[in-house]
Amino acid sequence: MKKLYRRLYIGLVFTFLYAPIVVLIVNSFNQSKSRSKWGGFTLDWYSKLLTDETILSSLVTTLIVALVASVVATVLGTAAAIGIFNMKKRWRSVILNTSYLPIMNPEIVTGVSLLLLFVFLNIELGYVTLILSHIAFCVPYVILNVLPKLRQMDKHLVEAALDLGCNRTQAFWKVTVPEIMPGIVTGFLMSITYSVDDFVISYFTNGSSAQTLSITIFSMTRRKVSPKINALSTLIFVVVLIVLIVMNVRDVQKSKPKRSHTSSKKGTVILAVVLLAAVLVSCVAVGFMLNRSSENTLDSGTYSDSVDWDMFRDKGITLNVYNWGEYISINEGEDGDFDTVSEFERLTGINVEYRTFASNEELYAKMKTGGFNYDVIIPSDYMAARFIKEGMIQRLDFDNIPNYSYIDQKFHDPVYDSENAYTVPYTWGYVGIIYNTTMVDTEKYDVESWDILWNEDFAKNILMFNNSRDAFAIAQFKNGFSVNTADQKELEIAAADLRTQKPLVQSYVMDEIFDKMIGGEAALAPYYAGDAVTMMEDNEDLDFVIPKEGTNRFVDVMCIPATVTDKDQKAAAEMFINFMCETEVALRNIEYICYSTPHTGAYELLDEETKNDENFYPSDEKLAKAEAFNVLPDSATKTIDALWTDIMSNTGTIPWLTPVFLVACVGIAVFINVYRSRKNKRKNEM
Amino acid sequence: MNKNTKWVASPYLLWMVVFVIVPLVLIGVFAFTVNVPYDLEGNRLTEEQASELKLAYEGTDEEIPVVYKTVFSWNNIIAVSQYLPVLLNSAWLALIATLICLVIGYPIAYLMSRVNPSYQRLIQMLIMLPMWMNFLLRTYAWMTLLEKNGWINRILGLVGIGPFDMINTQGAVVLGMIYNYLPFMILPLYSVMLKIQNTTIEAAQDLGAGNIRVFTKVVIPLSMPGIASGITMVFVPAVSTFIISRMLGGGTNMLIGDLIDLQFLGNAYNPNLGAAISLVLMAFILLCMSITNQLDNGDEEMEGKML
């Protein structure tokens, strides 16, 4: 009976541990892209995995970073351990305690502190910073494993070797190193494991050019994880599982004396790592060979010949393009969608690193932090204005962008760029409410008002913008304020409204909204019209309205950051912008992302149905009350940032609390340690 | 060998200064400074004055007469006060998660250490195996399980129960913490329990101790070092996590980690405030670790006199 309980208990714990793994594996065979619906068995995701450049290249980055960082960390850490071991005791404990700081501190603090360091030293974030920061947190693990082996080692061994005629170098290589080898190997393996698995530190130090698998997965989790990633994880899981089983069976069969079994276990672990690496590398190799076999490309005749597209071919130029999530036509390998980025690479021979962000404020934070080097960014109007004001983007050479002539006259000389010098419009749109008709009774409730987002009948069924400017705008429209108000009182009233709304909000979202609205997880959400249309295509129950109080109308624009100083680099960035304004490209993009286009050529080619669709091109009276964001004075921006942080964190204010808290924490900690060491001393004396 | 090999560590010491000490000093510097506007004569301006000046000069060719200087200030640290509830809430959730991990993990570790060695290895592997899957993916999979139309609600629906609101609650965040950090609790406990000899337990039994007394007087005291390191290894990452709360808590239950992220790469850029929050978090962790170190009688420090 007792045994039964035990088994039941162990069984329950393992169910808990493996439930999500089962979900991952099942979904890797799921034909439907939705993760909670079963659409039939398929192996497609596995074959598609092999042609996915983003996933494969981030896999390569992960492996390179892990390998380089672990090797360097092992050498550095082993040398450190030997040196530290031979130091005087007092020094030893000071240095050791400092060494362990990167792993004793919360990961986020280590990540942030390294970010500050790289920005301070003016090192561009990328491969180098990734590797450096990975070394930084791997070294402590190596020291941690090598040091005990040095302690266990018999000191007389080295002396014996010296007596027998070895010189010091020989004694070191022939005696010390073999003795501490197990520690070195464990340290190395731990480094690799932690490096591959790391997310938090890479998140703060990865920059624009290098992206590890964790980061790729992170940007996917914000919208929708491609089942291809599930397929990759399943592969890794299966390989690890097989290795572990083989290892276990071998151990059971042999049941040798203890010493030799640990060494054979080490051997198998190394074998496992090698095998894993081999499988992954072959995946990548096959992937690159198969790559782009089935792509939908345009005839080069389609492109205008006003610029020389071949100008930068074979010059080794790489452009970092930073765009909103889901804001360009990409080929996900299903129905041969047009892939803008690889088409540009094919046409011009310029390499493009394409990355996405979730909000204007996030883009601002990265630009302002420094260290992130982008060549083309696509902010919204008000953020572009802020960039211009702060000298963060530069004037464009419109001779390199002849396709600007296609941009509708309406979009020339805008408020946000009155000189018409810094920006090229990419899309425009407006904010409205997307709702699920099965959950919102339009007879009973007035959907055409922002007030519905404050209606308690929909408590926990409302999604809300996870960025300050858009969220404030809704509260401002609700109260009849201007969205460009800098008035402290008005901002506080809006903030108070957002605070009242918070208990009703299910979740604050940006790109996550797609998954949640399509899956019927929430009833109501404010969002951008184009994305709403995309969601409506995937779920017929969804509908979209423009609230009568007015709404925000925006233009998203392409710009070049001021950090791009190289002439060719800038010209190449302008070539990218010009490419995006090619009629055919603009058309494919706008059809894919469902926003509205300022490009006259592309607009002409749209089908009549789309042109007359109120959701894409609403009539002027419908947008009569729409207001565009303008850049706010610094004081207002700071107020909004502070209020937003408050709203998100639900706080009250007791100003003197932190210093007291800080002093108390440190004081109590010091007291405990002093008390303990005294006690120990007394114990030793007795 | 003594004197010569001491210098082998010197490249590392240099490394340590640059990559361990300097970054932490930078956090301190950021935490105690602010960027404030001055006019050209060196008079301090308020933000409003600076904005007005900038607006006035905008569009003209003249240079805006505002310069930003970095000056010492207590403001960030004082501003952190209002976020202490967030820290306490994070600590509270992390504490619950840690205790549940201990309650779940302790029996598992004990049972593991008492079965025959080949099973031990099997169970150990099975516990480590999920850690090979990316932690973001595992957390994401929990979303699939917990959602309103997720797997669990569907299965319960078949029996006619539910649906329950599970995702976007504090409970979901705690669950995410338990799930991700449970192995960090089990493994140190297990390695300590291996050292408890069966003969010790039998001796206690022979001397007349019942099951409960054996457990409280022998097993628990002997496993104290494992409990201490398990608690540290779960609590520290749990209290500072910032992604679990975002994915499973829906952003409505902000934790201290989210707050730091928000100030650096998120929606409210203010690295000075972010650094100040980091500093407070570090102090808090220092306190917690001193307390847990107390549990294992100070015999088993990182220095490891036992080894």
Give structural notes.
The complex is a heterodimer of chains A (686) and B (307). Chain A has five domains: 2-42, no CATH class; 53-225, MetI-like (MetI-like fold), CATH 1.10.3720; 300-423 and 559-618, D-Maltodextrin-Binding Protein, domain 2; 428-550, D-Maltodextrin-Binding Protein, domain 2; 655-686. In chain A, β1 (318-324), α14 and β2 (351-357) form a beta-alpha-beta unit. In chain A, 56% of the residues lie in helices and 8% in strands. In chain A, strands 4, 7, 8, 9 and 10 form a five-stranded mixed β-sheet that branches. A three-stranded parallel β-sheet of chain A has the order 2-1-3. Chain A has 26 helices and ten strands. Chain B folds into two domains: 2-78, no CATH class; 82-295, Orthogonal Bundle (MetI-like fold), CATH 1.10.3720. Chain B is mostly helical and 307 residues long. In chain B, α5 crosses α11 (211-239) and α11 (211-239) packs antiparallel against α14 (271-295). Chain B has helices at residues 2-5, 10-31, 47-57, 75-80, 84-114, 117-128, 135-146, 151-159, 170-194, 198-206, 211-239, 244-249, 256-264, 271-295, and strands at residues 33-39, 66-72. The two termini of chain B are 21 Å apart. Helix content of chain B is 68%, strand content 5%. The chains are: A alpha/beta (686), B mainly alpha (307). At the A-B interface, α1, α3, α4, α5 and α6 of A face α1, α2, α3, α4 and α5 of B.
Structure described in brief:
The complex is a heterodimer of chains A (686) and B (307). Chain A has 686 residues and is of the alpha/beta class. Chain A has helices spanning 2-28, 44-49, 53-85, 89-99, 101-104, 107-120, 127-152, 155-163, 168-197, 200-205, 213-221, 227-254, 258-290, 340-348, 360-369, 381-389, 468-479, 488-501, 513-518, 529-538, 567-580, 583-593, 600-605, 608-611, 634-649, 657-685, and strands spanning 318-324, 351-357, 376-377, 424-436, 462-465, 505-509, 524-528, 542-545, 552-558, 627-628.
